[in-house]
Write a structure and sequence with these properties.
Metallo-beta-lactamase, Chain A; six-stranded mixed sheet; 7 helices; alpha+beta; seven-stranded mixed sheet
């Protein structure tokens, strides 16, 4: 039995004798099947060609990515706290060298993921560090490799530990979530957003989409609801899902003006 990984979205599937016939994640309208069709790989094959890259981003925060870029190309974030470390979002590759580097930073006490496109090889990471995975229950149907280490939470907020709180915002997926790190940005607070709040290229704004690759927007009602929920969170910086996609300061105001810009465009 092999746990195949989709080459387009990077999601690892439950063990099968043969490659799956299709990828449910990619066939959903928020994603897409690769232009050359459906193709699969394995963790062992990835380890032959790719490597993990760790980069410090600020005190207590380290980015973990894949070089060269694979699938969607996101990077995960390791948040270090006195109560234990949190891995936010996940990637498809895990190699022994990265395990040793992460262990040197204090290991991983828990894993939390923003939405199904970043579930990737979460079970491999969970098993390597003996860490529970926290996913919002609204996205339960999108787990392609079930495991007893996966815990589903409900409602709009969940405190993982002191200073680390998950907030369900919805929009991109029903359970789309952000992580609030109270001590981030020098104590001013940081929001780790995945692409629930998508940091855009000028890094002064964010955007809101139901599907990014297929350019399907959200409704005004949904965007207003997200903005209202974010208004209740105190933070000054946003880390998006990719290297360099950071609103470095005044990020709470950036979300508010981004929502107003988006809503104005819908009204025009």
């Amino acid at each position: 039995m092999e746990n195949y990984i989709c080459k387009t979205c990077g999601i690892q599937y439950a063990g099968t004798e043969m490659e799956p016939s299709s990828c449910r994640i990619c066939e959903d309208e928020r994603q897409y099947v690769g232009w050359e069709g459906q193709h699969w790989t394995t963790l062992k094959a990835l380890q032959q060609t790719y490597h993990n890259e760790l980069k410090p981003l600020e005190p207590g925060l380290t980015g973990i990515g894949i070089q060269p870029s694979f699938a969607i190309g996101q990077r995960a974030l390791l948040v270090q706290t006195p109560a234990g470390n949190i891995l936010w979002d996940c990637i498809s590759l895990l190699e022994n060298a990265a395990v040793k580097e992460v262990e040197a930073l204090g290991g991983i006490s828990a894993i939390a993921i923003s939405h199904p496109h970043f579930y990737s090889s979460m079970v491999e990471w969970s098993k390597a560090f003996h860490a529970p995975v926290y996913l919002h229950a609204d996205d339960r149907e999108w787990v392609m490799r079930p495991d007893s280490n996966i815990h589903f939470w409900e409602g709009d907020t969940k405190q993982l530990m002191d200073g680390i709180t998950l907030h369900r915002l919805g929009g991109h997926f029903k359970g789309s979530t952000v992580l609030h790190w109270r001590e981030g940005a020098g104590g001013r607070g940081a929001l780790l957003s995945g692409d629930t709040l998508q940091v855009v290229s000028d890094r002064r704004y964010v955007s809101f989409m139901y599907s990014f690759p297929n350019l399907i927007p959200m409704s005004a009602k949904v965007v207003r609801g997200i903005a209202d929920r974010v208004e209740k969170i105190e933070f000054d910086r946003i880390y998006g899902a990719w290297w360099g996609m950071v609103v470095d300061k005044d990020a709470k105001a950036a979300v508010a003006r981004s929502a107003e810009r988006y809503l104005a465009a819908l009204r025009a």
